[in-house]
Amino acid sequence: MTTIDDAQAMLAELFAPWVQDLGLRVTAVAPGEVTLVLPFDARLARVGGTVCGQAMMAAADTAMVLAVSAQLGGFRPMTTVSLTQSFMRPVSGTDLTVLARVLKPGRTLMFGEVELAGPDGKLAAHATTTYALV
Predict the structure, then answer these.
(1) With contact defined as beta carbons under 8 Å apart, do 87 and 56 qualify?
(2) CB < 8 Å & 24+ apart, contacts of 4-12
């Protein structure tokens, strides 16, 4: 996987329909790194109009699968071992940028981080991840 089109095709082919319903759009791909946009949708908002944590967690997990695939040059079966997310500030009524990076690639485990930010560039959430290649 080396292009935005490749990554967008992976989103359409490999992920569950409810993940596809998030409307994630790939905006950049580099070795071990992917940037997505999580578009604001009122269906993803909780009381008060803020984007719910579950949607942000799903976006982070999805982005990291694509980042690992970009690191490997294509998709390999993998599973999430650990995903820890800290929510730093509420975001409402706006799209989020989701930047996933592989921090340490390995033969069987991949370690990474994901940043979710609003249009002002301020972090809304930060995740650390571990994936096992199967």
Answers:
(1) yes
(2) 4/28, 4/29, 7/34, 7/66, 7/69, 7/70, 10/66, 10/69, 10/75, 11/62, 11/66
Which CATH number applies to 4-133: 3.30.390.50, 3.10.129.10, 3.60.150.10, 1.25.40.180? 3.10.129.10
Residue with tokens 């650990």: 82
pLDDT digits (tens, 9 = 90+) for 72-99: 999 999 999 999 999 999 999 999 999 9
Specify the 3-state DSSP secondary structure of 75: coil
pLDDT at 2 over 80: no
